[in-house]
């Protein structure tokens, strides 16, 4: 019998390209942006080399650069100057994220503006919801607050609302509130399988959202669980999520694959701050080759089944791979 020689398909770049199974598309990358109120809070983040916090004006300029590179989607995180126990900044029609949405949509109507919806950036204790007298995050009070905040984001002109809090029933409540106010066309991208992960460390510096007591393990998922992720995703789809997300990305590619094989809705993956920081740390030390590692990383998210990749590398990737 003739020996089978898989290497025949790897001989030249053209051959490898001909038989390549998956491709990263710049128009499926989402760049997260951190938005602050004061220019003194803007600037580079120490634990996320290459990533800065922007004022509203800075974010508009950044969005313009992204659009020129073919990155059509941004995910906004608002970091208010004042925080309180009730997260009141989150429902302020003139709050930081609402203003940023309005400014970006006014300057770049075709840019897809996604707003992360959570309370942790707005509470003085750093938890994702309203904390009761016993120190627990009150699910239903938090859901009500999220639904109200979602309507203010919608009024500001957001395209997609992305609840990242992991409260039960929030997708349904947000969908109802949006519909009741006439925002039937606003998309919900739910952080459905969001794990209580150590890989969010640098984000909490960026968003000033480190919990002042306890941790997020009573609402975010336990990392060793996979079946539970499918249950969370199924619930969110039932409640009206249009897109579902798995987060973090790298250590959870099995979850991405299983979600892709189980559900028909678009699947997003979030390549989180700690994953970004690890890679940048190794690149800065010369321990790994940056461009190759980043290209490989993004391709592996797509291979695992992600339709949408949220990544701090979006701009940098687009700069090296301009697509028509
Ligand atoms: C808000 C939120 C977090 C992230 C996205 N939305 C932080 C958290 O849950 O603690 C993390 C993003 C990242 O690490 O890049 N709840």
In short:
The protein has 324 residues and is α/β, with parallel strands linked by helices.
Protein architecture, described:
This protein is an alpha/beta fold and 324 residues long. It has a single domain, classed as TIM Barrel, CATH 3.20.20. The protein is 39% helix and 16% strand. It has helices spanning 13-18, 56-69, 96-107, 139-156, 170-180, 201-207, 227-239, 253-262, 273-284, 290-304, 314-320, and strands at residues 29-36, 43-44, 52-54, 73-79, 112-117, 160-163, 187-194, 243-247, 267-271, 308-311. An 8-stranded parallel β-barrel has the order 1-4-5-6-7-8-9-10, surrounded by 8 helices. The chain is globular and about 75 Å long. The chain starts with 12 loop residues before the first helix and ends with a helix. Bound molecules: ligand PBG.
List the helices and strands and how they pair.
Blueprint: H1 13-18, E1 29-36, E2 43-44, E3 52-54, H2 56-69, E4 73-79, H3 96-107, E5 112-117, H4 139-156, E6 160-163, H5 170-180, E7 187-194, H6 201-207, H7 227-239, E8 243-247, H8 253-262, E9 267-271, H9 273-284, H10 290-304, E10 308-311, H11 314-320
Parallel strand pairs: 1-3, 1-4, 1-10, 4-5, 5-6, 6-7, 7-8, 8-9, 9-10
Antiparallel strand pairs: 2-3
Helix pairs in contact: 2-3, 3-4, 4-5
The protein binds ligand PBG.
Q: Structural class of the secondary structure composition?
A: alpha/beta
Report on the biggest sheet.
8 strands, parallel, barrel
How many domains is the backbone divided into? Answer: 1
Name of the top-level CATH class: Alpha Beta
The low-confidence parts are none
- Give me the strand/helix succession: HEEEHEHEHEHEHHEHEHHEH
Strand content: 15-25%
Number of strands: 10
Count of helical segments? 11
**Ligand identities:** ligand PBG
From the coordinates shown, what is the CATH architecture? Alpha-Beta Barrel
Instruction: Give the termini separation.
Output: 46 Å
Net shape: globular
Helical amount: 25-40%
- The CATH topology is given as TIM Barrel
User: CATH superfamily name?
Assistant: Aldolase class I
């Amino acid at each position: 019998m003739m020996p089978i020689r898989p290497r025949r398909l790897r001989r030249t770049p053209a051959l490898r390209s001909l038989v390549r199974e998956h491709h990263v598309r710049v128009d499926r990358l989402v760049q997260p942006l951190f938005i602050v109120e004061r220019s003194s809070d803007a600037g580079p983040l120490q634990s996320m080399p290459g990533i800065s916090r922007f004022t509203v004006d800075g974010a508009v300029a950044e969005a313009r650069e992204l659009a020129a590179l073919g990155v059509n989607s941004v995910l906004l995180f608002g970091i208010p100057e004042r925080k309180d126990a009730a997260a009141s900044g989150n429902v302020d029609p003139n709050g930081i994220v609402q203003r940023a949405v309005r400014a970006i949509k006014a300057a770049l109507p075709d840019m897809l503006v996604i707003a992360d919806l959570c309370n942790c950036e707005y509470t003085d204790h750093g938890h994702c919801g309203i904390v009761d007298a016993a120190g627990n995050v009150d699910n239903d009070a938090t859901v009500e607050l999220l639904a109200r905040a979602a309507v203010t984001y919608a009024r500001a002109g957001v395209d997609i609302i992305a609840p990242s809090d992991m409260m039960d029933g929030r997708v349904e409540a947000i969908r109802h509130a949006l519909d009741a106010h006439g925002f039937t066309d606003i998309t919900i991208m739910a952080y459905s399988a969001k794990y209580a992960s150590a890989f969010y460390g640098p984000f909490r510096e960026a968003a000033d959202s480190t919990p002042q007591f306890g941790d997020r393990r009573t609402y975010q998922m336990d990392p060793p669980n996979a079946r539970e992720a499918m249950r969370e995703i199924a619930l969110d789809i039932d409640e009206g999520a249009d897109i579902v997300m798995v987060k973090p990305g790298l250590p959870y590619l099995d979850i991405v694959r299983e979600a892709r094989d189980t559900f028909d809705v678009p699947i997003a993956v979030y390549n989180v701050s700690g994953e970004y920081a690890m890679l940048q740390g190794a690149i800065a030390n010369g321990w790994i080759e940056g461009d190759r590692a980043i290209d490989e990383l993004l391709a592996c998210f797509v291979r695992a089944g992600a339709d949408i990749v949220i990544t701090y590398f979006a701009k940098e990737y687009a700069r090296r791979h301009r697509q028509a």
